[in-house]
């Protein structure tokens, strides 16, 4: 089971943190082999490093896909650190590697010129399952393009 995360450098709201933690815990409990549970992140400040820390605490193997530009890099102590890539290439690499992408945006509406929303659009384009954790606590599940808002 491989899970990816993309999100804002501003960090998560309380609602997002609660929902993401619950999601990671549930997925780990449902995994056929929890030793194979991986969390892939972009190694940037904010959501990436916060979700990686939560995942490590739950027992996930963490895999960092760092950017070539260190300005916003978190240098998270991940289990594995891959070679740095340009931001958009790195985001595609995360999506191409995982089964599901967790999206933790700053805003509830999709925006252009946003790495988080770029990654969301790419994941949809290539058919990945996507779970969006909106700032107000709503969760949108897009399972191969089928939306289920709760």
Structural class: alpha/beta
Helix content: 25-40%
User: What is the highest CATH level, the class?
Assistant: Alpha Beta
User: What's the N-to-C terminus distance?
Assistant: 24 Å
Mean pLDDT comes to 89
- Note poorly predicted spans: 145-150
Report the count of strand segments: 8
Account of the protein in words:
There is one protein chain. By secondary structure, the chain is α/β, with parallel strands linked by helices. It has a single domain (2-149), classed as Rossmann fold (3-Layer(aba) Sandwich). 34% of the residues lie in helices and 23% in strands. The chain is built from four helices and eight strands, in the order E-H-E-H-E-E-H-E-H-E-E-E. It has helices spanning 14-30, 47-58, 87-97, 115-125; strands spanning 2-7, 38-41, 61-64, 80-81, 100-104, 129-133, 139-143, 146-149. It has an eight-stranded mixed sheet with strand order 4-3-2-1-5-6-7-8, with helices on both faces. Helix 1 runs parallel beside helix 2 and helix 3 (87-97) packs parallel to helix 4 (115-125). The longest helix has 17 residues, at 14-30. The chain is globular. The model is unreliable at 145-150 (pLDDT under 50).
Gist?
This protein is an alpha/beta fold. The chain is built from 4 helices and 8 strands, in the order βαβαββαβαβββ.
